[in-house]
Amino acid sequence: xxxxxxxTDLAFKKIFGSDxxxxxxxxxxxxxxxxxxxxxxxxxIINPWLAPKIxxxxxxYLDVRARLSDGRQVIIEMQVLNIEGFEKRILYxxxxxxxxxxxxxxxxxxxxxxxxxxLTDFLMFPGHGPYLSRFVLKEKEFLLxxxxxxxxxxxxELPKFDKSLEELVTQAERWLYFIQHARDxxxxxxxxxxxxxxQRAFDLANVAQLTREEEEELEKQSFFIQGQRNAIIKATKxxxxxxxxxxxxxxxxxxxxxxxxxxxxxxxxxxxxxxxxGLQP
Length: 281
Prior knowledge:
Elements: H1 9-16, H2 22-34, E1 43-46, E2 61-68, E3 73-79, H3 86-99, E4 114-120, E5 132-135, E6 151-157, H4 171-181, H5 196-205, H6 212-265, H7 270-277
Parallel strand pairs: 3-4, 4-6
Antiparallel strand pairs: 1-2, 2-3, 5-6
């Protein structure tokens, strides 16, 4: 068997955001948000994903929305590229999902909490060890909780998760292993044999289940992401090279200026000192 890469737009939405993803999404959210099964009684996938016609790739992020049985909304997004303004977009999407709940004339007490769960394929908090981070509103100096915990930002940094199959302990770790390694596997690991939600996820990720259009779309997205990553790498290398060259040139100029000053201080004329250093008169 071959499995599609869950990090790509089509694959992520097919696995976690389609009409067939109900059981999968509940277990995924239970594991990552609450660390235990059975917390989420039920949910509704808002605007479930449908197989697209070939349309090219216009976005680099993945988005699934769900409304839990208690009214809370969850936005699930996976960002594969570290692009400018990404952090602000997370805040904007969460605030927008919270505010649009209120119809004209509605009561503020009707607003339901919003959780923004974001998985990144790059480091967001390099100095912070854990792969899972949660942000809520608190008083700045004394860390007092705001009376309403209606907005929560949850981040999972995939590069920080490097456990092997044999090291997996929690259900959250099993899900992250699936997201990280599904595309490299040829069989469903025996460790997942008695896990219906993960079995279902592997079924949805099976390449044999894709239509020809879906395969073409998946290939387009993979090429697009790789192209963008290569462009970032090239720009970074070019910037480093230009910065190094500029630094070397500035260093040489400063060194010559200092040497010139010392020769003049030692009694040489500036013209002789310049000639000695090979500088223009």
